[in-house]
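PT: before anyone asks, these are the final sequences, not the draft ones from last week. 464 residues across everything. Please model them as a single complex and drop the result in this thread when it's through.
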Amino acid sequence: MSDKKVITRFAPSPTGFMHVGSVRTALFAWLWAKKNNGTFILRIEDTDKEREVEGSIDHIKNSLQWLGLDWDQGPYLQSERLDVYKKYAQILVDKGYAYPDPYTEDEVGEFRNKAELAKKPFLYREHRPKEFSVWDGAKPLRFKVPTVKSFKWNDLVYGDLSAGPEALDDFILIKSNGYPTYNFAHIVDDIEMKVTHVMRGEEFISSTPKFLSVYEALDIAPPFYATLPVILGPDGKKKLSKRDGVKDLLQYKDEGYLPDAFINFLALLGWNPGDDREIFSRADLIKAFNISRIQKSDAQMNARKLDWMNKEHLKLLPPEEIKNKIFECLPENMRNPKLVPIILERISKWGDVKEMVEAGELDFFIQAPKFSKEKLLYKDFLPEAIAKNLQLAIESLEQIDVNNFTEEEVKRNLMQITNTLSSRGELLHPVRFALSGKNKSPDPFIIASILGKNETLSRLQKAI
RNA sequence: GGCCCUAUCGUCUAACAGUCAGGACAUCGGCUUUUCAAGCCGGUAAUCCGGGUGCGAUUCCCGGUAGGGUCACCA
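LR: through. Structure below.
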């Protein structure tokens, strides 16, 4: 590899929201730039004004910012660089490698239909005019393939690739409205911006010979290509697309995923460090990242593993930050520090806190539960036996000093009683239920310690 | 249809031709002295098929099969 400064870019079109597929391309380009102390450029490919979606440029920027994929240059807008593309187009015209298309769109469509009927691949160059007129901008400008041949090239991920001559055609460089096509604009920009490594999706492999042919016509060396495998939808079949219910990236933000965890997850989808490490900090990721270990086969999005990974990152956060974040999701009357460990244990992302609140899972911490007494029953123990056990619990807990009503003290006292019983459940279940009103809840000791002596005794009393 | 790419547990993946095919998520079971959660321990689970070259193929070659991509005045 040359000793040139590494320059990578992320070049989305502003046609909608970002999803995990597009953002992973950005991530890999960003990682490679960071690893090499290089430059990461953001470029907006807005050459199709018809398809442009209002607000998507901001959306792209917000998404990258959320993940901390900061760009060193840009965003450049292709729509503001029309003169640059015209300049390069003129160079090709002057060299005899570009010419105005004499046909109308319908006529070209006819050619295409005929080829299809004949079950032959459609190649415009088979209809190339003998004589070229002068390009006045009214007609689309087409590339004239210098030499029709097979291409072989190297891809940093896929290795040696090749394609036959039918991959080559006289494609449109400048549309009749003056805008360049993607095929041409991105080449010009990559040249002008001195991009050294092009990270891109698999769908561009088949058009690479066209790109290479333009570089040849321009007599300029192409950049390194690193083609990334596709991220498949949850069904494992189709490529992720905005149509089939794929999530907007910012939705993950709203659901409370950590940017570092998300990046970690995304990086491991199609790349691995070569050892068993899975949890990476941002810095470690940059250090470990390497193009040569990018996967060739497509990968499927796995939401469960993302949740697991997010939790792993959650646990690494400073306790103070965890507390603050959880408090943010909690109504004011629930902002009790003692609740934090209980909640942390049960969530994988911040949004889960809100869900717990909405599901009423934490209500018993702020108000006494209402329930019918038969819920207190445990296995086949009689109501009288249960009531007696609750009475024992009350008497025992009354002994604890109100200022020392800790989880440990409560547990010691209650466990002492269970030693005299035939089973622990006949005491612990009714106590827990009396305090929480739930079949599934944290253990009675921690609940009691959070409620405090008075509230605990009051709830037990009411249950008898 | 032409051209191109890919193929290891359900999923993400590891394995200079020699490993009992390893790890992680998920799943299942046990422990954690009531439930839930968390944690710990353990189990089930894979080299697409067929040839070839090797003493030896997950690994290299060929052919099939399956999946995907691409053939726009979209990117």
